[in-house]
Design goal:
The complex is a heterotrimer of chains A (about 260), B (about 240) and C (about 325). Chain B is α/β, with parallel strands linked by helices and about 240 residues long. Helices cover about 35% and strands about 20% of the residues of chain B. Chain B folds into 2 domains: about 170 residues, 3-Layer(aba) Sandwich (Rossmann fold), CATH 3.40.50.300; about 70 residues. Chain B has 8 helices and 11 strands. The radius of gyration of chain C is 19 Å and the shape is globular. Classes of the chains: A mainly alpha (about 260), B alpha/beta (about 240), C alpha/beta (about 325). The interface between A and B is medium-sized, with 27 and 29 residues.
Chain lengths: ~260, ~240, ~325
């Protein structure tokens, strides 16, 4: 167990440290000027040294990501389920879904700001837009491939349709559903940042970086990029954590004993 | 209880009357409509004509009045053994503490008490079919339809399971309809054997099985066993005489 | 619209057309020196008129220069293009200049593009921007900013004039948008821009009436130049003659364009037909730029220590730079004709 943790956590951390070394080496060897690109430590220090100003911005981006992800995931679950159960709707809606993803996110942002203003609205819509598609597609896929014998068995038991859906079809689709959620989680933060860039009231992480860019504060530019990446990774890991908790049978032979379950 | 039904495309008109508490085996080649018959009885299919009556009630086209088991154990991998046994309750009225207590009792009674919190993936094929049968038993349906439940098991396990099934049947007194293409199995388990012809399935013979109970491995080499077997095999390969 | 990073229209097409047009006047007896000029904006607009005229009317050719105009991917990259050598001469805002020097970039301003600060706060017609009521007019309202350094430096003067702090207003930042769209759709209450861009934009919107305008200088902002021509020190030391020839040609072109604004705007339209701006917009814009090109003595280009010091002090006041450098760190007039 310890060796597994060491491998799963240690190796990525090690490769990250290696990356930082290479970065530092390039700056030093090629005499890169600080107004072109910063050293890794300068970038990191720009974040840690300005944390009190950055923390509210980080919270803002997290809020946009979470609300947008929740909305998108919910929409994807509902849409995917409806399409799985109503084939006519699937034929109608599926092409529209695909079309929606062909629209570049950047092209989406400008009209959204005009319609919804500079508040959190456009950011939530953009994130939801990005998230709902992989979730919907995977929910549809999962629900379409449930073992029909199992569904028939439920019918023989006399199960009403909604119970079959809830207790058989949805759990049977757990793997594809979480795949969709993980994909959505990876791209969610990027969507929030684009939304922020296209109009923020007051301060936001993207505008902070924008200011750093025009002010030649390359350390802060790189530092904020690292910060945004960290937020994205954390969110992804959170979703994986939820998956691990929700699907114990994929890793264990025996269920844990819970005190509330007699 | 009685059963009368007509035809569906895979099945020629069949009329069947089954006595309470009896064990009826149905033997026939693949594709002769045996499973279709079960699907009609279970209510998954509606017959083109005729009806299904269980305990005097017309249950044609409705579900929830039989126990049902397939060759696939169909245990849900995301639930423990205990939760799998209580599956029918969960899918109909919700699981009560009494359901859980009964599941534990049945599992312990048949030697799987230690595995209640295991996931199906940790169990062998034979153990899983046992759990599947327990799941079927706790539905308290008087009629059980078993469609080649031991077909996927190796010969040794199959023999164990057949003996175990007979024990369970003796203890619970349910009516069992048992599909198999294994002639030995059909004779070993049943009171009555229906032989079916290839598609469209038709009952070509309705044989009484006089072999005395309780049965054991010795029964397999009794002369009457062999005679019955020869008769059935002739029917299967040549058709009705 | 100048202060934002939006690329309007088919810039790619106009880029190719522009460089083709500008490379047309190359045949001359003297040896031709290649010069790459980086504009301060991702696409061509009417402030490029002096360079267009210099090429069109042969001033560059006669000075022995072949000038290629390039456009940066966003408004803050021109300095970096100069620093790494992708461009030889560039046009920057003076605020970017001061900050770049503060960050250690070896850039040097060689001539003022314009002389006066024509940046201001704008509102829809009928909005009063008089000093007496400014505090209540602005308090709690949404003010648009492109997020660039010039707006960042000037906005505090307006707020101080109104007796407000940044937390008492809502500053909406959108580097990618167009301020008038938001003003017209009431997504913001006030807009900020330079008037040579804002007024033609308003004229082009077809709305009646005049925008209410409060110039930054009226609110106490220093009347210093906004745009400047710049090179790296290394380039100036190595190619001083080229810089001189360049400025001399551009000056002649500027003088001519100031005297013949309509024709000059027309030459821009011909060179960049797909710039995304209408001919009327370019004509009005250039005519509004002409008055701010000269100082009180009627001079073009000439820089003063005072302009750089007062700008640097203003930037230090809002903590965009940490210290005010000596004026000679920022500029020199010695390459001007």
């Amino acid at each position: 167990m310890r060796r597994k943790v060491l491998r799963n956590v240690g190796v990525p951390v090690l490769s990250l440290v290696l990356l930082l070394f290479i970065w530092q080496a390039v700056i030093v060897v090629f005499h890169v000027q600080p107004y072109i690109a910063p050293r890794p430590m300068a970038a990191i220090r720009s974040v840690t040294g300005n944390w009190s100003a950055l923390w509210p911005l980080v919270l803002g981006t997290i809020r946009e990501t979470v609300y947008g992800f929740a909305s998108g995931a919910l929409l994807g679950l509902v849409l995917g389920s409806v399409m799985a159960k109503v084939p006519v709707l699937q034929r109608l809606v599926y092409p529209v879904l695909v079309l929606s993803q062909a629209v570049p996110t950047i092209a989406l942002a400008a009209p959204l700001v005009l319609i919804l203003g500079f508040g959190i609205g456009p950011k939530i819509v953009i994130v939801a837009w990005i998230v709902f598609f992989p979730v919907a597609v995977n929910v549809l896929d999962g629900l379409s491939h449930v073992d029909q014998d199992l569904v028939n068995l439920a019918r023989v038991y006399g199960a009403p349709r909604w119970r079959t859906f809830l207790y058989v079809e949805v759990p049977a689709s757990a793997t594809p559903i979480f795949t969709g959620l993980k994909i959505g989680a990876t791209y969610a933060v990027g969507g929030a940042i684009i939304g922020e860039l296209f109009g923020s009231e007051g301060a936001s992480l993207a505008i902070y970086q924008e200011h750093a860019n025009t002010n030649f504060n390359t350390a802060a530019v790189y530092g904020t990029t690292m910060l945004m990446t960290a937020i994205g990774i954390s969110w992804f890991l959170l979703v994986i954590g939820v998956e691990t908790l929700a699907t114990p049978w994929q890793r264990r032979s025996v269920a844990r004993r819970y005190r509330w379950r007699r | 209880m009685g059963k009368t039904f007509g035809e569906t495309a895979a099945l020629a008109p069949v009329t069947l009357d089954v006595a309470d508490g009896s064990f009826v085996a149905i033997v026939g080649p693949s594709g002769c409509g045996k499973s279709t018959l079960f699907n009609v009885i279970a209510g998954l299919l509606e017959p083109d004509e005729g009806e299904v009556r269980v305990g005097g009630h017309d249950v044609t086209g409705t579900t929830g009045h039989v126990g049902y088991m397939l060759q696939k154990d169909l245990l849900v991998p995301w639930r423990t053994v205990e939760d799998n046994i209580t599956m029918a309750a969960r899918l109909t009225r919700g699981v009560t503490p009494e359901d859980r207590a009964e599941a534990r009792r049945v599992a312990s009674g048949y030697g799987l008490g230690e595995f209640l919190r295991h996931y199906p993936s940790a169990l062998s094929g034979g153990m899983r079919q046992r759990v599947a049968l327990m799941r079927t038993l706790v539905t308290h349906q008087p009629l059980l339809l078993l469609d080649e439940p031991f077909g996927a098991l190796d010969a040794q396990t199959r023999l164990e399971m057949q003996q175990w099934l007979l024990q369970v049947w003796r203890e619970t007194g349910r009516t069992v309809l048992f599909i198999t293409h294994d002639v030995d199995e059909s004779i070993f388990l049943s009171d009555r054997i229906l032989v079916m012809s290839p598609r469209p399935g038709r009952v070509v013979a309705d044989l009484d099985n006089p072999l005395p109970r309780p049965r054991d491995l010795g029964t397999l080499i009794e002369p009457e066993f062999v005679t019955l077997k020869a008769q059935i095999m002739r029917l299967l390969h040549e058709g009705p005489s | 619209m100048k202060l934002s990073r939006v690329r309007v229209g088919a810039v790619a097409g106009s880029l190719i057309l522009g460089t083709l047009a500008l490379s047309g006047g190359g045949a001359s007896a003297k040896a031709i020196t290649q010069v790459t000029f980086a504009y301060d904006f991702p696409g061509p607009d009417f402030e490029l008129v002096p360079l267009v005229v210099a090429q069109h009317r042969g001033y560059f050719a006669r000075a022995g220069l072949h000038v290629k105009i390039v456009f940066p991917p966003n408004t803050s990259t021109t300095t970096q293009m100069l620093s790494v050598g992708t461009a030889d001469i560039g046009m920057l805002t003076t605020s970017d200049m001061v900050i770049a020097v503060g960050a250690g970039a070896p850039v040097l301003s060689v001539a003022n593009y314009s002389m006066h600060n024509n940046w201001g706060l704008f509102a829809l017609p009928g909005t009063s921007l008089s000093a007496s009521t400014l505090k209540s007019t602005l308090k709690g309202k949404r003010i648009f900013s492109y997020g660039d350094t010039w707006t960042e430096s000037m906005l505090p003067f307006i707020l101080r004039y109104a007796g407000l702090t940044t937390s008492q207003v809502k500053i909406v930042t959108d580097p990618t948008g167009y301020d008038l769209t938001f003003l017209l759709s009431h997504r913001v209450d006030f807009s900020t821009n330079t008037n040579n861009y804002e007024l033609p934009g308003w004229a082009g919107s077809g709305k009646s009436g005049h925008l209410s305008e409060l110039l930054g200088t009226k609110a106490g902002a220093p009347d210093v130049p906004i745009w400047t021509y710049a090179v790296t020190r290394a380039y100036a030391n190595a190619h001083g003659a080229t810089v001189k020839a360049f400025l001399s040609a551009v000056k002649k072109a500027t003088v001519w364009a100031a005297a013949n604004p309509a024709a000059a705007a027309g030459e821009f339209d011909m060179t960049y037909p797909k710039s995304g701006y209408s001919d009327a917009y370019n004509k009005l814009g250039w005519s509004l730029t002409v008055p701010i090109l000269t100082n009180s003595s009627g001079q073009y280009f000439t820089q003063t220590s005072a302009q750089w010091t007062s700008l640097a002090r203003a930037l230090k006041g809002i903590k965009l730079i940490t210290k005010v450098a000596a004026p000679s760190t920022y500029y020199t007039n010695k390459y001007q004709p």
